[in-house]
Amino acid sequence: MSAPTPTAPSPFTEQAMPSWRRAVLKVGSSLLAADGGGLSPRFALGLAQFVSAHVQAGREVVIVSSGAVAAGRAIVPRAAEAGAAMAARQALAALGQAQLIALWQRFFERPVAQVLLTHDDLRNRRRYLNARATLLELLRLGALPVVNENDTVSVDELKLGDNDNLAAIVAALVDADALFIATDIDGLYTADPRSNPHARALDEVTELTPEVFAMAGGSGSSVGTGGMRTKLEAASKAGAAGVETYLFNGRSAEVVRGLAQDRLRGTRIHAAQTRIAARKSWLRHAPVEPGAIVVDAGAARALADKGASLLPGGVVAAEGDFRRGDTVEIWLREDSGQRRLARGISQYSALDIRRIARRHSRDIESVLGYNYGENVVHRDDLVLL
C-alpha cells in the first residue's frame, strides 16, 4: 500500500519513543534510487543526520541498506532490465556495491565498513558467531557498519529475499533494542488509503495478528523487493527476539528530524517480550549438542550469584566433541558427581576448551594461537537451569 504524498502532513500522531542503546536502521531502495537510475543523496542525507545525532549521543547504529542493483544499473544501463537473467542482476549488484558504500561514506567522518551477508551465514551457528563478533567489534572501534545481502553469490536471496527480513535478523544478531525501517510510506494503515477513504493510520501495534497482516498490501516501488507485508514479517522476527520495530517515512524531513529527538511519527510495533527474556527463552529450549562444559564450584557461584560470564579459569573439563557456536550444557563437578547447572553457546570447541581449561583469559591466544574473546560462554549467551 502507499501512503499519502510525502509533502502532505503525516496522519500519524507524534509519540515519544522508549530509550534504546543499539539500533538497526533499514533503508530501502526507493529512498536511495535516483529517478534516472543510480543513487541519489536526497533522502539519504537526512537519514545519515539521524544516525549521526544518535551516535554522538553515545548510541550505536548498524545500517542495513539496499540499492546495489539500482546503482549498478546506472553504471552499465544496458546490462540488464527489470526481469533480466539472474547472472546479469548479480553482476549489477557487484558493480553497485562500491557506489552504495561510497554514498554512505560521504555523509560520515567516521569510517564506514561494508559487511556482506547471506542468510546461510546467519543460519549456521559458527558463521553467525563470526558475523556477530565482527559487527560488535566494528561498533567498538567506532565504525559504522553498512550491511547488505551478498547478492553476487546468493541466488536464492536475490530472487526471493529482502532486506527487511535481513535487518530483523541483524537486529537479533547484534542484540539491538530497536529496528527502524525507513520506507516511502508513512506507516501501517488499516487498509489501502489510496482506495479506501476510511483507512486509519495505526500509531501502535501491540500484537501482529493475522488481521494485522491482512492490512498489508504489496510493494509500491519498482526498485524494491518488499512491500508492507515483508516489513510486518520483519517486525515479527524482530519482536520474537525482543526487538521493537518502528516504521516511518524516510522521505519526510520532518519525520526524520523528529526521530533524531526520539519522537516518532509512524507505526510502533511492540516486541512479544523483552530482548533478554527472548534470548534466554530461546537458549532454554534450543537443542543442545552431546557433551558438556564442566566447571568448578567457584565458577558455578559466579554464574548463579553474579550473572557472570564463564571464563576458562573456572573450567575443569570439556566432554564430547562439540564445536564453536554449538549450544551445550554446563555441568557443576561436585564430590558426589556432576549436575546440570546451565546451558549456553560455546565460543570455543571442546578441543580448544580442554587446552585452555584452568588458564587465565589472557593466555588464550598464546595457547591456541588465536582467540575468540576472553569468555568461554558469554553471560548473554547463557541461561541457568
Give a short overview.
With 385 residues, the chain is α/β, with parallel strands linked by helices. The chain has helices at residues 29-32, 44-56, 68-75, 86-105, 119-123, 125-140, 155-160, 163-173, 210-214, 228-240, 253-260, 275-285, 297-306, 350-356, 364-368, and strands at 15-16, 22-27, 60-65, 112-117, 144-149, 178-183, 204-205, 244-249, 263-264, 266-269, 292-295, 315-319, 327-334, 337-345, 382-384.
Textual characterization of the structure:
With 385 residues, this protein is α/β, with parallel strands linked by helices. It has 15 helices and 15 strands.
What keyword list fits this structure?
alpha/beta; Carbamate kinase; eight-stranded mixed sheet; five-stranded mixed sheet; 15 helices; globular; transferase; ATP-binding
Topology:
Elements: E1 15-16, E2 22-27, H1 29-32, H2 44-56, E3 60-65, H3 68-75, H4 86-105, E4 112-117, H5 119-123, H6 125-140, E5 144-149, H7 155-160, H8 163-173, E6 178-183, E7 204-205, H9 210-214, H10 228-240, E8 244-249, H11 253-260, E9 263-264, E10 266-269, H12 275-285, E11 292-295, H13 297-306, E12 315-319, E13 327-334, E14 337-345, H14 350-356, H15 364-368, E15 382-384
Parallel strand pairs: 2-3, 2-6, 3-5, 4-5, 6-8, 7-10, 11-13
Antiparallel strand pairs: 1-9, 8-10, 11-12, 13-14, 14-15
Helix pairs in contact: 2-11, 3-4, 8-10
